[in-house]
Amino acid sequence: DIHPHAIEETSKKLESNGFKNINVEQGNALNTMLPDESFDSVLLFGVIPSPFLPLEKLIPEMSRIMQNGGCLSVWTLNNMNLPKSITKGGQFEYTGKVEGVHKFIKTVNKQ
After folding, report:
1. Is the pLDDT of residue 89 over 60?
2. Whole-structure pTM value
3. Long-range CB contacts for residues 50-57, cutoff 8 Å, separation at least 24
4. Which residues contact 82 (CB under 8 A, 6 or more apart)?
5. Which value, in Å, is the radius of gyration of the alpha carbons in the chain?
6. DSSP E strands, the chain
7. How many angstroms separate the CA atoms of 50 and 47, rounded?
């Protein structure tokens, strides 16, 4: 997340729920500076839609940092044709919605 307050609150929630294998870091989702294929799972919670994070830039960056077969989970209040919007570039396949969270699998190594 780019907001320090969100980092602090998320870290507190993770700690209070006993999660120990998750790192929360402040950063820019459009240019994470993280190594290629370094994550098997990414959660975008309330990130989409945003005028500051256009999908045509966000999705390739998420694909770049995710391992093939990795899971992209997206929670949003506005569905805005979300599955079609995320899968149209061919980097992700939609697998369904579980308890309000859209799930996608990274299908190919595209950037």
Report:
1. yes
2. 0.83
3. 53/29, 55/85, 55/86, 56/89, 57/30
4. 48, 74, 76, 102
5. 14
6. 39-45, 66-75, 92-98, 101-106
7. 7
Enter the tokens of residue 27: 């950063």
Using alpha carbons, list the distances in angstroms from residue 74 to 16, 18, 46, 53: 23, 22, 8, 14
Q: What is the mean pLDDT of residues 45-49?
A: 78
pLDDT at residue 110 is higher than 60: no
Eight-class DSSP state of 80: T
CB 54 within 8 A of CB 89: no
Q: Residue for token digits 């045509």?
A: 56
